[in-house]
Amino acid sequence: MSDYTECTDEQLMISLREGDDSALEHLVKRYQNDVFRFCLHYVRNLETARELSQEVFLRVYTARDRFDPKRIFRSWMLCIARNMCLNVIKHNKIVRMESLEGLELASNAASPDWYPVTAHPLEGVMADERRRTLLHIVNDLPEDARELVMMRYFEEMSAREIAEVVEITEGAVRTRTHRALNLLRERCAGKMDILS
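Above: the chain's sequence. Below: its structure in token form.
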């Protein structure tokens, strides 16, 4: 198969499983930035995230025969990435960056849609300050809550995708995300009002 632009991820995995190694190259092009950013959210170290994102695609290649085409490829791949990140954190006790703000600046991972473009420079400064404050608050959430907030709102994953990655039910994802958002609201109360 020579033109991969019209292929779904799952079709590319089937081609890879059937011996077409160039299908992996297309998957890498499609997802290398997403996987890097995803790993960076966990390990918060640029070099470690780069190494992990490369290793994720090696694992995808070696596990190609175990991929079930009925699954969503992206979720399956991010499940591999998450497990690898958690193993690195557990075994290596990596040094973490100070905050998600530093992570955002280092990776340029934040979307420019986080805050509206404003006509007045002071409004832009205030929007930047609100964004930094929010990032600090998210960074201080317990690890499981931060993980869900990161997946849902930074990576824009659906409850189904998160459930597949974290290997829990969609209902559990919704419940835990609701709790994480309530905790985030509590911690934002007062801090964000000051910046309004």
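The chain has ten helices and no strands.
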